[in-house]
Amino acid sequence: MSALPYAIPAAAATFSYLNARHGLSYDLPMLSALASAAVSTKRHERSDTFNLFYELEAQAQSRENHAWIIFQGRTWTYKEAYDTVLRYGTWLKSKGVEKDEIVAMDFVNSDTFIWVWFGLWSIGAKPAFINYNLAGKSLVHSIKTSTARLVLVDQEGRDKFNDDVMREHGFVRTELERDGRAKYGFEMDQSDIPRSVRNQTKTPQAAVDAGAVSEPLRRQLEVVFFDDALALQILTLPPTRLPNVARDNQTRTSMAMLIYTSGTTGLPKPAIMSWGKCNGGTKFVSSWLSLKNNVLYTSMPLYHSSASVLGVCAVLRTGNTICLSKKFSHKTFWPEIRASNATMIHYVGETCRYLLSAPPSALDKQHKVRAAFGNGLRPDVWEAFKERFGIETIFEVYAATESPGGMWNHSRNGFSSGAIGRMGTLTSLLFASMLCLVRMDSESDPPAPLRSPSTGLCQICDWNEPGELMYKLDPNDISQKFQGYFGNAKATNSKIIRNVKVKGDAYFRSGDLLRRDKEGRWWFVDRIGDTFRWKAENVSTAEVSEAVGKHEAVVEANVYGVQVPHHDGRAGCAALVLKDSAATAMGDKTPLPSEQTLHSLAEHVKKELPAFAVPIWLRVTREMQITGTNKQQKHLLQQEGIDPSAVEASGDALYWLKGGKYQRFTKRDMELVVGGGVKL
Known about the structure:
Blueprint: H1 4-22, H2 24-47, H3 53-62, E1 67-71, E2 74-77, H4 78-94, E3 102-106, H5 111-122, E4 126-129, H6 136-146, E5 150-153, H7 163-168, E6 172-178, E7 181-189, H8 195-200, H9 205-209, E8 216-225, H10 228-235, E9 255-260, E10 270-274, H11 275-288, E11 295-298, H12 305-318, E12 321-324, H13 330-340, E13 344-348, H14 351-357, E14 371-375, H15 379-389, E15 393-398, E16 407-411, E17 421-422, H16 425-431, E18 435-438, E19 440-441, E20 448-449, E21 467-473, H17 489-494, E22 496-498, E23 506-516, E24 521-527, E25 532-534, E26 537-539, H18 541-549, E27 554-562, E28 571-578, H19 595-608, E29 617-620, H20 635-640, H21 644-649, E30 653-658, E31 661-664, H22 667-674
Parallel strand pairs: 1-12, 3-4, 3-5, 4-9, 5-8, 11-12, 11-13, 13-14, 14-15, 28-29
Antiparallel strand pairs: 1-2, 6-7, 7-8, 9-10, 15-16, 17-24, 18-21, 19-20, 21-23, 22-23, 23-24, 25-26, 27-28, 29-30, 30-31
Helix pairs in contact: 2-11, 3-4, 4-5, 11-12, 14-15
GO cellular component, one term: peroxisome
InterPro entries: AMP-bd_C, AMP-bd_C_sf, AMP-binding_CS, AMP-dep_synth/lig_dom, ANL_N_sf
Protein name: Long-chain fatty acid transporter-like protein
């Protein structure tokens, strides 16, 4: 009698066991996507076609009538988009834009953003994406550090460039505005600009060679304001395709674009997005997400790499469709998704929490969305978001524009719910030598890696022990994986650490505390600098936020450490947006919470958190301060600290834990604290 009928079930049982233990079926799609990205990168490197303009051209030929862009109810096919991009390229050449020149863009999300962006790529130029929320000093700094001589601005940003603002920041009008443009002259101190960047800005070479770095660098800046008339004019131009030589000599480390850091703790820095990362990363994401016959919806800003590179470009690589929203809004989010028949939504930061905080609707599950893709989905929101809106799958990503790597979690069930990354046995073995978690000295300022007294090497974390995530670099050629910040060697070098595992090695510092467990899951703990020390214990703001956020009255929690006179370390303070409040309101200020809510909150945090982690102060606010990508701001909150005058001037209310209850914190209370009459 044949043994085959018995062998098949036995083999199936063996595979099932190995798969459950080692995550084989989870790893294989990821490894396949990685292999596909590696092959694609090598192919484009050999043919010198890293520029994704060539991908648009190919899709325009093979899928000419398939929709690529949907924006505000209008659809553009790949062929229509390609022709439009060529016309914008023609216009940009008429403006004198040269190969490899950097051009700054200050646009809200729109079809025009994409035409300008790919129009620049079509002629071999490089865009610098300016955060459209910036104004004043931060805006001017971003433009100056890009070294752009041409800035393209949409109508919504026009007021930020009026003469009074420009004059205040050292710009002098050199030509009257005409045809939607204005020209300015300004000076920069060369001592703030690295030699390589000074050379690109056409400084007289003799002065550079002579070391005259203290002389002011005189530059011209042209600002062009886009309006309907200019857009119509561009569409009348011929769709001229420049020969390949206009885009050649691009390597995997060459700049594709500049994308700025958020600037939450300082002025924004231009991070170099390389062609290798842009090309290979988008191929990986499109394969990993299985983007086949999909419509991806994003309301995240295109100036951020998550929406532009992992959204628009990933969709392009597979010839699919992206529905673009102007800005995130509760009112437009689901209607635009339903109108476009979107099958996947893209999120960043607190987006899912804000959607969850809206009143329930009978239409919550009336859509075709099968998956959500993005980064920053909090553990306390994860399952509730899936359940309410009927989302089957979460594709969570952990990455940064300048980072040489990332984390990926394809989650269908509760096993990896809340994790920023997951690896099976095969993937773990593959990446074991490429990354590590390093123990940190939380008492140093700023926090520094702990090193062995005998070897001088970093101390590597055990399972479930928080540590800074680091990515391995080639110590002899850092730029192969990390291209750094444009024109800012100091900031670039600050992200590199040497002698981590062995003498002479080099790693990229992520600036984030993570932990990993034996099941291959990676968990976000906190940003380094956000974690604070209180009563000789380390407190994770992320973990406290998660615990506080589980209270039924809390819509959103943002936890940070505050300095307290006569006390070491930092005490915990939680900024809260609450659902209910007392009838008594403070004019146009934040309504006060009820005594019942305050009592319930105190009982909740004492139950959920160890004593040292319980927030001593609560700052009740009407609306949380966030970045343009829906990430929480802490910097300004920390600056105002526990000063009741500053907090109330912002329209908020401050409470503190006294006698086991949260009570209003007044100026008199502050005087007692300052006078040393209070011991926490």
